[in-house]
Amino acid sequence: MRPYDHPSRALLHEEVHARPPIPLWPNERVISQSFLLDAATRKQQIAWVQKLSHALGCAPSRDDHSFMTLHLAPEPERVLVKWELHGEFATIAVIVHNKTKVKEPLLKSRLEIERDLDLLFKGLGCPTISESGGQRISALDLVFEHRPLFTEALEVSEIFSGNTVLGSFIFSSKKAQLWTDLQLDEDGFISFFIPHDVLGSRQLGRIARGLAEAETYRMVAMVSFPVAKSLSLPLREAESELAAVSEKISKLQAESGVNTEKDGLFLEELSRLASRIEQWISGYGLRFTAAEAYSQLLSKNLLELNETSIPGVQTLSEFMDRRFQPAMGTCIWTQRRLRELSDRISRTTQTLRTRIEFVNEQQTQKLLASMDQRARLQLRLQETVESLSVLVLTYYAVGLLAYIVKGGKEAGLAIHPEIIAAIAAPIIAITFLVISRRRRRRQKS
What we know:
The structure is a single chain. It contains eight helices and nine strands. Helix 4 (201-222) packs antiparallel against helix 6 (260-305), helix 6 (260-305) packs antiparallel against helix 7 (316-410) and helix 7 runs antiparallel to helix 8 (417-444). 59% of the residues lie in helices and 15% in strands. Strands 2-3-4-1-5-8-7-6-9 form a nine-stranded mixed sheet, with helices on both faces. It has helices at 9-14, 39-55, 107-123, 201-222, 224-254, 260-305, 316-410, 417-444; strands spanning 28-36, 67-73, 79-85, 89-97, 135-146, 166-170, 176-184, 190-196, 308-309. The longest helix has 95 residues, at 316-410. It is rod-shaped, with a radius of gyration of 46 Å.
């Protein structure tokens, strides 16, 4: 690396090499189980694999401890354990050598393998796989066998207890077949039988990884399906409730006058409905989004198998298209209904709020107009009072002046009080009127 390289370049580059498939021998068996984890069982899984690695004298090879391959038994009787930690689940796959040719249902021989594995774990002083933590969500028994390929489904029916089987050629070379009944046996496993004509070890490893991931993604995606079904009726009721409220609001719009009580009731109903929908979105939205992502990963893994049909036999991809994809369509449609219903509630609420705001604005305008009218009336009354005040003040001022003039006349002055009062009256009135108008102007400014 050079000094001018991005500090995370090596880490980002190595991501393309993360979780590589384990090369398999021509006749091997992969028993893969996946466990859903919460915060506590996630720690339990990490502690389990660390204890197992320490018992085997192995140090974790990655800093995040998300992928480990451990050798429980050396060759030629090799036993491998591959552990992968994902976001919400962990996968534990055990790879053992398949000693005998497959001629009967796989349950009996697998139970023997599981008993031997439990003895190995106990000999190391470690808990068994069933005690590693989490709830098992998928379990596959993959049997690889180097042998001539089958020509029809009847030849493999005994391996699957006479059940209807799915089958196909895989990879473009058509040197391998995939057979399964996709049924859970008494031990909770789905059996896959993969006969092949000398495929490469890494090709076999990719088949094992692809099938294990596909089944895990299918089951983790299907976790959301019961939720989608349970929401079907409540969603229909919520949609009907919203339609009823919208119809009432529409009728209210056509009515003349204002009905604030009904507006408040409608707004309260919409608020309750919106909170219920948001609760569903918060509780289940992430689950539906994850289901959609897992569905896409399942389709990608099945596509990588490059299945070619065997005459008269349904392929795994065709079966998933007919059975699995409709379930995922239900989940996607439920998520879409939730989002659309939330948007419709928001639009209806906004319409109602707009109506309420418009009504409030009308009421405010009427109130302002009424206040303005009252102010004008008060102003006119004030002007009338001021006019009367001018008359009163003029009357008293002229009377006072008349008393003064009469006193002068009594003192011997040659004056006429009535004439002086008559001349002074308009002058005094005009003076008071000017003073009143100036005071009014000062108040306005």
